[in-house]
Amino acid sequence: MKMEPRFEILGKTPLCLKARPSLASAMQAFETSLFLLALGRYPAALTICASAIEAAIKAIPKNDLVGFEDGLAAAIKFAIRKKPRMHIKDLDSFRDTRNQFTHRGYSPEDDGRAVELILRVGYPFLTKCFFEFHSYSLRDSVIGGIWGQIEIARAVLDEQYRTMDDIYNQPKNWQAYATRALRHHLRYGFLDRGEASWSDIDRGLPDHEYTERERVRNNLESKCGVYTYTHCPIPSCMSHDTLVGLEIVHGDQIAADRLFCFECLFRLGSDDKILLRHLIGAELEKQRHAVLKEYGVSRK
Questions:
Q1: Are 28 and 7 in contact (CB under 8 A)?
Q2: φ/ψ of residue 246, rounded to 5
Q3: CA-to-CA dists, residue 219 to 201, 206, 214, 222, 245, angstroms
Q4: Tens digit of pLDDT for each residue in 28-64?
Q5: Which is higher by pLDDT, 97 or 251?
Q6: How would you label 113-129 residue by residue, b for 16+ Cβ within 10 Å and e otherwise?
Q7: Maximum pairwise Cα distance, the chain
Q8: Considering the entire predicted model, what is its pTM?
Q9: Three-class SS of residue 267?
């Protein structure tokens, strides 16, 4: 008896999976792409995402595959010819970049471009392939809050583009910043490779975990001045032992200035305001009145 395919982060499978067994290849390639992204292997993640797209299109029932030819370029053209509404801007750039990575390799300087194409082209087009040809929703099937983190990463990238004065003078691979929370979520929750652990910090210093944790806590609280505690924005953690340093803006508004989770050790600093706002802005708004009251700030 043939074994069922195994999936790590896809909790639901298409109803048509048994009739279209090759569809499992596309689903597993999508998962692998996410795990490669979590490890910072962005060009490889793009390449595997492209393989997932080709496999998802190739898994269409044979009687609907008349005119199909192997190869990513041919597969994309075939898909758009059958479903013109599937077209996404920069598909040609995605395909050309995949070809470059596949045939000529890649370097760390390609990381930013790979992240941008994955978030803006690869995953959205793959989502359309699954839905249009197999009635399968990635959004509803990915477990553990991963899809929400993908959307946050895309929103952060879009805001970076809107707010940057000069994109061409940004640090190399600045686009990868948008995936920081997504990568930590995947590593901490699924790959067991978070940014660090207290055992790493206290290595060689037995029985000092509590002392070191409190030292860090006291240091951060004194630096912040105004702060609150909330749940961690990383879905695989959600610890309520997460310190958020605050700024009081315009007298009656609060904004996150830094964040540190004492459980999963996810951290953001004062240079991470865009990501902070997307991750915990809504939660802070719920706490705004209580924080202002606690610190004796009058509200308008």
A1: yes
A2: -125, 150
A3: 15, 21, 8, 5, 12
A4: 999 999 999 999 999 999 999 999 999 999 999 887 8
A5: 97
A6: bbbbbbbbbbbbbbbbb
A7: 71
A8: 0.88
A9: strand
